[in-house]
Design brief:
Helix 1 (39-51) packs across helix 2. This protein is 38% helix and 13% strand. The radius of gyration is 22 Å and the shape is globular. It is α+β, with helices and mostly antiparallel strands. Strands 1, 2, 3, 4, 7 and 14 form a 6-stranded mixed β-sheet that branches. A hairpin with a 2-residue loop joins strand 5 and strand 6. The chain has 17 helices and 14 strands. It starts with 38 loop residues before the first helix and ends with a helix. InterPro entries: Bact_solute-bd_prot1. Residues 1-22 form the signal peptide. Keywords: Signal. This is ABC-type glycerol-3-phosphate transport system, substrate-binding protein.
Length: 463
């Protein structure tokens, strides 16, 4: 079974023959869509950054910070321009990000090797939510408290959410913001209209976009024998699970807690089982197979493809080739029994690597990221970048902003993949089984005691 990268078991730290050269500072060779900010835009960014009291301090004596990841912050071949926060870092502090490339599934192996070699990798992405608390327990990351002041004007409005992720009294993640773009329902408006269905965006605008509306559309559209498939992709299970507002694992009073026995978890798992029984789940079915087919959205053969909005953070011809010129997106549907509208919420966050060569530089870069969210003029430049570089419409920006508001209003962060390698793999595989035809009670009985033991082992590390 071929799973997409975000659901590969990235925590399996098996031995690999790849040398450290596999992670290098070599940039993407593809330059077809590479871009550079217009000089007038850079001038505006510089003036905003230099004139603001939010950013303090002089230019860095050492502006180079080392970034290990499977994706580059710098411009690449996807049509991504210089991110506005990076431009602020460059213009205000003379900063530079040196990229060390890794495959997603080999990040932790390579990080361990770089730490052992003394290379001085500075920072690592925490937003995949598989680094905490595991990385703190394994001593791969350093606390950020000596470099980030969460009580400062730059950080005070995200202090509460950062305080949720404290281990042994220290912050190990520097969280920029809760994010609403983790998983959206991507669909094609032409397909919806030709099927005589109402646009999900209109339902959402009226407050009617919930599980019931989602399932009603599937019921009216799906005809697998005629290649009219329902739900595809590797993100829908957790995307729908996260709408109950109860993550599989949470942190309470500094300890990990399992929520597998919560009634809402049973309810959403039973609903996923019903969707499978009715033939609404295409991926893994006899007709579709185990390979996801996002291009079917553009071809009018699928109704819903839940996926992160990063699929639209690229030049328009790239995303429209897959999803069609009439592609649009809405949040995951609301749980009609939940007390609030919860959606899959990401946590844009970064880890300071143990033994990093320039933690002060990383802190200044993250200050620049916070500044980009707070300074209205700079934020407007960032929104314009979506239109100019990615071919977005104002309606797409408005929908993305609405999803961001939902995430910030009710942030529920799922850290189940960050518990440990074994626990993360067990939960990632098991919580999908209802969408593959296994009743929830069977899965629950098989895993709940094991998960409790995993959490007990990690909690024993709390001092």
């Amino acid at each position: 079974m071929k799973k997409a990268r975000y659901f590969i078991s990235a925590l399996l730290l098996t031995s690999i023959s790849m040398s450290l050269l596999a992670c290098s500072s070599k940039k993407d060779d593809s330059s077809k869509y590479s871009k550079e900010l217009d000089s007038s835009v850079r001038d505006e960014i510089r003036q905003n950054a230099v004139g603001s009291e939010l950013l303090t301090g002089d230019k860095l004596e050492n502006g180079v910070i080392k970034w290990l990841s499977d994706w580059d912050i710098n411009p690449d071949g996807t049509g991504k321009n210089v991110p506005i926060d990076l431009a602020v870092f460059q213009e205000r502090y003379g900063g530079e990000i040196k990229y060390y490339r890794c495959k997603y599934e080999e990040r932790y192996d390579m990080l361990s090797k770089y730490i052992a070699s003394g290379e001085g990798i500075d920072f690592f992405y925490g937003g995949n939510l598989d680094a905490f608390p595991k990385g703190a327990v394994k001593d791969m990351f350093a606390p950020v408290d000596d470099y980030i002041d969460f009580d400062s004007p730059l950080w005070e409005d995200v202090k509460d959410i950062n305080d949720q992720f404290v281990w042994n009294g220290k912050h190990y993640m520097a969280g920029i913001q809760a994010t609403g773009d983790k998983t959206a329902v991507v669909y094609n408006r032409k397909t919806v209209a030709e099927a005589g269905l109402e646009d999900p965006a209109d339902l959402y605008a009226r407050g009617e976009w919930d599980w019931n509306a989602f399932e009603n559309m599937l019921e009216k559209y799906v005809d697998n024998g005629s290649q009219k498939f329902g739900i595809d992709g590797w993100w829908f299970e957790y995307g729908l699970m996260n709408t109950i507002g109860v993550p599989p694992v949470s942190i309470e009073d500094g300890k990990l807690v399992s929520n597998l026995s919560d009634p809402s978890m049973e309810r959403v798992q039973n609903w996923l089982y019903e969707l499978y029984q009715k033939g609404y789940i295409a991926i893994g079915s006899e007709d579709l197979g185990w390979e996801s087919k996002p291009a079917y959205i553009g071809e009018g053969k699928e109704l819903f493809y839940p996926v992160g909005l990063y699929e639209f953070y690229k030049e328009k011809s790239q995303w429209s080739t897959t999803f069609g010129a009439d592609a649009f997106f809405v949040p995951m549907p609301k749980d009609p029994e939940a007390d609030e509208y919860y959606i899959p919420t990401g946590f844009e966050s970064y880890m300071f690597v143990k033994g990093g060569s320039n933690p002060q530089g990383v802190a200044k870069y993250l200050d620049c990221k916070r500044f980009t969210h707070l300074d209205e003029d700079t934020k407007a430049v960032a929104d314009k970048q979506f239109i100019d570089d990615y071919g977005w419409t104002q309606e797409m920006i408005d929908m993305k902003n609405s999803m961001q508001e939902l995430a910030e209003a009710n942030p529920v962060i799922d850290i189940s993949n960050g518990v440990s390698e074994d626990c993360g793999e067990l939960l990632d595989n098991s919580l999908r089984l209802t969408a593959r035809g296994t009743p929830w009670n069977e899965t629950y009985e098989a895993i709940y005691a094991t998960v409790d033991k995993y959490l007990e082992n990690i909690n024993s590390e709390v001092k």
